[in-house]
Amino acid sequence: MTPRVAACQFEPVVDSLDANYDRIETLTEQVNADLAVFPELCVTGYDLSVARKRATPVPGELTSPLIDIASRTDTELVVGLPERDGDALYNVFVLVDGSGVQATYRKRYPWGDEPSVFDTGTGPVVADTSVGRIGFLLCYDLNFPELALEYAERDCDVLAVGAAWRTSFRGDWRLLLRSRALDGPCYTIGANHVGDQRGREHAGESLVAGPKGEVLVETGTASDAAVTTVDSSELDAAMERNPVRETRQELSSE
Prior knowledge:
Elements: E1 4-9, H1 17-31, E2 35-37, H2 48-54, H3 64-73, E3 76-85, E4 88-97, E5 100-106, E6 126-129, E7 132-138, H4 145-153, E8 158-163, H5 170-183, E9 187-192, E10 194-197, E11 200-203, E12 207-209, E13 215-218, E14 224-229, H6 232-241, H7 244-253
Parallel strand pairs: 1-2, 2-3, 7-8, 8-9
Antiparallel strand pairs: 1-14, 3-4, 4-5, 6-7, 9-12, 10-11, 12-13
Helix pairs in contact: 1-3
Keywords: Hydrolase, Plasmid
Pfam families: CN_hydrolase
Domain CN hydrolase: 3-232
């Protein structure tokens, strides 16, 4: 059976974890997907002082409710939250299933005021899931094609992208998700915030792009989800049509 993926968007309530967990669970139940991707820092809301205050180790207090949701819905979840590791603080994407945290990705390119709060991640993270091999990017990371190419070198089928992308950059969001899909080639699942969070207007428009760079399904600006399938035969056809991955491997071996 062809696996289903979902790019889920909602307006987090800043510093109201229970409300945000409830929204994550409701959307997960609605999409009935094998893997659901949620936005950057959506557990706490996008507020750097709140992220600093609420950050815990991973696995820990912030991930336990996500594991419970994954177990109840039989869905793999990719969710953004803050992680504390000793004296360091990271903006992270976690992959969880009903048995626990399976991967943690730390954002590599902090944006705006984020460097005053968050430390920088040091490398790509790859995980094997029910929908294929996936890699992770957070928001501004999407602007750097070299990060996506690291995942192509690791034969990723899917890039999970979480963001708090503002309306002033909405055109970039759509273009970059399509570009990174074509770079792979791979599927990109982009999950963004919607609404206002303490003066930040978020664009929504979450989408899934296919390995030919086309938008397969997308949302608007309300709480919603974009749901589609990941088809390995479509990925194979895209790599035959656009053999950049094979060409890169050949050139690197010379």
